[in-house]
Design brief:
Length: about 400
């Protein structure tokens, strides 16, 4: 006797439901990713204590594609590992390169691009190339990209930097630091050597990578239409950026059309978690992506909105009269001008820049404690701005 069609459909649906349940029980590291959303009550428990899997979707892997170093048909996309570094930082850089090559790049062989305002030594070139099978490029930063622009008042810089130094602001008296912040904010993507490069992974000396990453992160960015990826989210020192937000508000008043519909304004102006920061920074929470790690799409920075914003800030002079960092500048721009869905927290990339960590709970990680945010004095805990980000934007 034939079984009625509705009963057959019900039976098929039941079998499918059982298969789905079995799949999620047997893949616990992926179920947590699917739960990523806004944490309305803030972060009561570090998400990195839960099993941490890879991002959802189709991921490009070295074993399934041609990533050999000299392949003419390589699966690599138009991207580079990017490092602004000095010759004297060679030994610290080598350790960082070895970490990233071991955990990720030895599988994909993406090129490295090194930038310096001084020529690289032959020793630097020889030792860095020896660490990787990827191609290395050594570039000199043009003087017009590095030195103070003509409208900056040198005497005012000395005066204001002295005041910042007296207020205890780190690096306030170092002109090279101010120049570096401006370069990382609005100049790096203009270098002729990067003219035809779209994606970059910023790498600095003295950082560590703890987890094996088995997929092409640049392909992930491209395939999922992501603009920016981060690991650590912090509060900044408000004394270093007192006029950054007021200048941003002036810019927005002139260009209200640049504000993205799905922006991250709440994260940028929150006054609940650290009200004293918001007050000293004149309306800015000081929350920012810690840009010593960032994976980004340079088309965003080359775009009309960011370029106009940077030019406005550059003319205001805060990179030199105050100590505006590229981290808050990038973060504010992304938070205002980009769709929040295009920013990605790389929860699965284990990372450390003293004294802060991004340490996932994964068998692919070693050398750090899952969920550890900092190492050192307990006051460092309050510098974590992830609770705000997860509350207003989400855990992705």
């Amino acid at each position: 006797m034939a079984i009625a069609r509705p009963i057959r459909l019900l039976g098929a649906f039941s079998i499918l439901l059982v298969l789905v349940v079995v799949f999620y029980i047997s893949h616990p590291t992926q179920t947590f990713i699917n739960l990523g959303s806004r944490l309305k009550d803030g972060m009561t428990r570090d998400p990195l204590l839960d099993p941490t899997g890879e991002p959802e979707g189709i991921l490009w892997r070295a074993e399934d594609n041609d990533y050999s170093p000299d392949s003419e048909n390589s699966a690599r996309i138009n991207a580079t590992l990017l490092s602004l570094v000095r010759n004297e930082e060679l030994n610290d850089l080598i350790k960082t390169m070895e970490d990233l090559e071991r955990t990720w790049n030895h599988k994909f062989n993406y090129p490295w691009t090194f930038m310096n305002d001084k020529p690289f030594t032959e020793e630097f070139k020889r030792k860095t190339q020896a660490v990787t099978k990827g191609k290395c490029h050594y570039e000199l930063v043009p003087k017009e990209h590095w030195e103070e622009p003509e409208w900056i008042d040198g005497e005012l810089v000395k005066e204001s930097n002295k005041m910042l130094e007296e207020a205890g602001i780190q690096y306030a008296d170092k002109s090279s630091y101010h120049r570096m912040c401006r370069w990382n904010s609005g100049m790096f993507y203009k270098h002729p050597a990067l003219a035809n490069t779209r994606y970059y992974w910023r790498v600095e000396p003295k950082v560590q990578f703890f987890c094996n990453i088995d997929y092409d992160v640049f392909r992930f960015m491209q395939d999922n239409n992501k603009t920016y990826g981060f690991t650590i989210n912090l509060f900044d020192a408000p004394e270093s950026i007192p006029t950054l937000w007021p200048e941003t508000e002036r810019f927005l008043a002139e260009h209200p059309e640049y504000l993205a519909d799905n922006n991250m304004m709440e994260w940028l102006v929150d006054d609940k978690l650290r009200p004293e920061h918001n007050k000293k920074a004149n309306g800015y929470s000081t929350c920012h992506f810690w840009s010593n790690f960032e994976i980004g799409d340079m088309d965003f920075f080359r775009g009309e909105r960011y370029e106009a914003y940077f030019n406005h800030l550059d003319r205001a002079g805060g990179f030199f009269y105050e100590r505006w960092g590229d981290a808050p500048v990038h973060s504010i721009a992304l938070g205002l001008f980009e769709d929040a869905s295009k920013v990605h927290w790389f929860r699965d990339i284990g990372y450390r820049h003293i004294p802060y960590f991004n340490c996932p709970n994964s068998p692919k990680c070693s050398g750090c404690k899952a969920g550890q945010f900092y190492e050192g004095a307990s006051f460092l805990a309050k510098e974590d701005c992830r609770p705000n980000y997860f509350k207003y934007v989400g855990t992705h």
